[in-house]
Amino acid sequence: MDHLIEAIESKQNPSVVGLDPTPALVPAQVMGAYAVEAGEYVEDDDDNLAATGAAAAYFEFNRAIIDAVADIVPAVKPQIAMYEALGPAGIDCYTMTCQYARENGLYVIGDIKRGDIGSTAAAYAKHLTGFDGADVWHEDAVTVNPYLGSDGIEPFTTAAQEADRDLFILVRTSNPSSAQIQELELNGGTRVYEHVADLVEQWGADTIGRFGYSRTGAVVGATHPEEGAALRARMPHTFFLVPGYGAQGGTAQSVAGMFDHNGSGAIVNSSRGIIGAWRNDPRYSETLEPETALEIVADNAREAAKDMRDQLRVALA
User: Fold this and answer.
1) Which of 23, 155, 290, 298 fits a disulfide with 64 by CB distance 3.0 to 4.6 angstroms?
2) 164-197: per-residue pLDDT in tens?
3) How far is CA 103 from the centre of its chain?
4) What is the pLDDT of residue 246?
């Protein structure tokens, strides 16, 4: 995690913006404007037209946010499902977003949550190594589901080492129903998520960098502050990606225990709280021009990102 930690230190800000656009989060006039534009070059295919217009709107939305926050945050985390929903045009938007973020000096966490084995896992791990030497995804790290055990993880750890990239493996997630599996008690009293935590620490043991953290990070939800603090002690060499801040109820105070004694060891994600902050701006109306609407999106994203940064600084002080 050396590259990520350096980026965090350079901004003095352990936060990451989730780029998860949906039609509800992108201003209506922006969606409409790019639907019209798409109609100028997509012919006789209404389905492709709609997806192409949405993908173009998503990219302009993402670009406005990246431009607004690039000097504040060290990283972004696009969720690939939002883009895959649009088909091929959405995948193009995803890779363009990742590339644009990289070009603006941001560390990119591809939230892909892959989980498979053998040749399939190795193919998914091309997100890290690229194809035939070409960096087609423009990601610095990806998220992985460990449900299939080491068979599903080793192709990713190998790829991460080869490409000098990182992983974040699901350990204790922020969704309410995670308890159905993650809190099950094993023989000896250990919970499933604690056992997974031990495996993640073990899987990264051979890749510890100069800041004391391995390439193999953990996803630990902000909605579980006590468990997160206990996992911090249990996983001394594992860097945390902490979702659930803001809209899901996590606060700067609730995540503070997931950092180490130096105020490092974690990065906290906010998605809707930043990219959707414009919806509370009284200046916004659907009668605005698309360019003006995007300016309001950018203004609010910047202020929300600064507020999150400042709250984390206070909590970690």
Assistant:
1) 298
2) 999 999 999 988 899 999 999 999 999 999 999 9
3) 17
4) 78
Does position 16 have pLDDT exceeding 90, yes or no? yes
- Nearest 5°: the CA angle 89, 99, 112 is 65
Compute the distance between CA of residue 14 and CA of residue 259 in angstroms, rounded to an integer.
10
Tokens 């080793």 appear where?
154
Q: Residue 8: name the closest of 101, 110, 107, 109 by CA.
A: 107
Q: Assign 162 to helix, strand or coil.
A: helix
Count the domains in the chain. Answer: 1
- Give 141's contacts (C-beta < 8 A, 6+ positions apart): 4, 107, 108, 109, 110, 160, 165, 166, 167, 168, 217
Q: Which domain holds residue 131?
A: 2-316
Rounded to whole angstroms, the Cα distance separating 131 from 289 reads 40
What does each C-alpha distance from 153 to 165, 172, 204 come to in angstroms?
14, 17, 11
pLDDT value at position 45? 58
Catalytic position from the list 77, 113, 126, 306: 113
Residue type, 130: G
Give the residue among 215, 263, 278, 223 at the shortest CA–CA distance from 15: 263
Q: What is the CATH number of the domain that holds 138?
A: 3.20.20.70
Q: Encoding tokens for residue 279?
A: 């919806």
pLDDT for residue 40 is more than 70: no
CA-based R_g, the chain, Å: 20
Query: What DSSP string describes 83-139?
Result: HHTTTHHHHHHHHHHHHHHHHTT-EEEEEEEE---HHHHHHHTHHHH-BTTB--S--
Tokens standing for 108? 């990119």
Known catalytic membership, residue 126: no
Residue 115 CA to residue 143 CA, distance in Å, equals 9
pLDDT digits (tens, 9 = 90+) for 256-293: 999 999 999 999 999 999 999 999 999 999 999 999 99
